[in-house]
Amino acid sequence: MGISSIASSYGDNKNSPIVDIPDQGPIKGAENEGIVAFKGIPYALPPINENRWLPPQPYPGWSGIKEAVQFASNCQQKPNSWDTSLSKEHLSEDCLYLNIWAPKDFINHQTNNGYPVMVWIHGGGLVNGGTSLPLYDGSNLARQNVVVVTINYRLGRFGFFAFPALHKESEEQEWANYGLMDQIAALQWIKKSISSFGGNSNNITLFGESAGGDSILALMTTPEANKLFNKAIIQSGTSNFSLLSPRPWQQAVAIAQKFAEKHGIHGIEKNDLANLRKLPAEAILDGLNLENMQRDLFSGIVIDGVLLRQSIKDAFKDGNFQPIPILIGANDGDGVFFNKTDLNILTKQLGTTTQEIKHVYDPENKLTDNKILHQVSADWQFIQPTHALARQLSKFNVPVYEYRFSYVAKPARPYTSYGAPHASELPFVFDNLKAAFKNIEPQDTAMAKAVSTYWVNFARSEVPTAGEFPAAPKFDANNPKLLHFTLQGPFVESDPFQKRLDFIEQLQNKKTPPMPKKN
Question: Three-class SS string for 234-292?
Fold first, then answer.
């Protein structure tokens, strides 16, 4: 039964569009100012009780019309001190849901010639975040004639856990990356069902920030995700940052065992796995969030031999990835959020001297040590790896475009002197400035329109363009140029940080230091 017959059968009206989802049933969304939203659509069974630490199971469907006008719970987590939008009352292990925004005339586009589809994978270090945040409302992107989808996926130890007893019940032998499995299941659902919402199932673009960008890179190397998406946008996510670098299998197993032993489960009893599954969610959380990443008790993404056969870095080096068009970039102040040290300590960990660093970063002796620290941190953790990955992809003739985001919204300028902080591009990408700032200036609004248009046009046509602004140039290793979002607007230029990045690359070729530790 298609949408027309469903609508006539149930008495559709303009504010209550109804769609029939294949193999599940009809759902009712809501229209607001020309955009139709469907929220809280289940794409898999709740991963609770005996389904905790199992791959996502198909959701069988429902009888009658399912209301899809409110967000479902975000995945279980401990909110950070700044997470004012994440209410503990709306967190649950029952969280495998997605949301869709489409232009109101989506009914007329239910073919493979439909609207481009943009699928958002949120960041948060694989331990925090969720789709109900006002920042991720897809309405303004959908107004540019795309279908926007946001997905939840299991976080923390619910999503990434390599306890040995789990292998014994698995035909695949070594499960660990449940969060990645969730993302794949959501993409399979989207590929199958998005045409019912006017989306083109053959034109799907993933976009994600930080851990969301890392997830996309992992999916690009995973055969199970092959052909489920056609383009990718990576925002400040390169899998180089040590908090998110995939762990080797045996290391991840040791971490899971250590966590279980903390809760009196030693991996030798027959009912150990059942006891783990009986632990309350708060015990599994055990205080884990971005403010306390618990590197000795949380593995993150695992090189499990099932989804990830090798490190993401090696997969891209060896050409074992899906060769799709990619837009990739970082923020000039990306290191601000993650700095937990001082310049002298960081210098030693990088295997250099403060004199060498200041010669490159502050030849005129005008900067404070703290500003130099933030610049080095951003370059090491995000900007240089982004540039290096763009160069690596270009070797395989992959269409790749590099951007740099240096714009700071006027309301935020009094509070930062280190450039655009980590995640500060998000209100501009979604064109949702009001979700982040008060007293927005016309210049801010214009930049949000430009950034979101570049993203949408890349999803539409594989080339980042935005009206009268310059098109992003395809990356050329012999003459690399990037699209730079600055206070003067977007423009194309050679990398202004190139000398710094060459210096960082020389250090990286010497050694790979651990993440700087807090004093």
Answer: EECCCCCCCCCCCEEHHHHHHHHHHHHHHCCCCCCCCCHHHHHHHCCHHHHHCCCECCE
CB atoms within 10 A of CB 189: 25
Residue 424 is among the residues annotated as catalytic for this protein: no
In a domain, 111, yes or no: yes
Q: Total structural domains in the chain?
A: 1
CATH number at 221 reads: 3.40.50.1820
Q: Which pLDDT band, with edges at 50, 70 and 90, does 84 fall under?
A: confident
CA of 419: how far to CAs of 333, 375, 415, 445, in Å? Answer: 4, 9, 10, 19
- CA separation for the pair 426, 335 (Å, rounded): 16
Helix pair angle (354-361, 343-350), 10° resolution: 100
Identify the DSSP state of 337: T
Query: What is the C-alpha separation between 440 and 452, in angstroms, rounded?
Result: 17
**Mean pLDDT to the nearest integer, 108-126:** 90
> CB of 480 within 8 A of CB of 391?
yes
The residue written with tokens 């290793």 in the block is: 477
Containing structural domain, residue 417: 39-53+67-510
Residue 327 lies in a domain: yes
Residues 6+ apart with CB under 8 A from 274: none
The answer to whether the beta carbons of residues 341 and 414 sit under 8 Å apart is no
Pair of tokens at residue 453? 């248009």
Q: Of 70-74, 213-217, 335-339, where does mean pLDDT reach its minimum?
A: 335-339
Of 266 and 46, the structure prediction assigns the larger pLDDT to: 46
Can you tell me the distance from the alpha carbon of 154 to that of 126, in angstroms, rounded to the nearest whole number?
A: 8
Active-site choice (195, 196, 210, 452): 210
Angstrom distance (rounded) from CA 53 to CA 273: 10
Parallel/antiparallel/unpaired status of strands 147-151 and 231-235 = unpaired
Q: Which two tokens stand for residue 280?
A: 């309350």
In a domain, 9, yes or no: no
Q: How far apart are CA 113 and CA 490, in angstroms?
A: 31
Instruction: Identify whether 28 is part of a domain.
Output: no
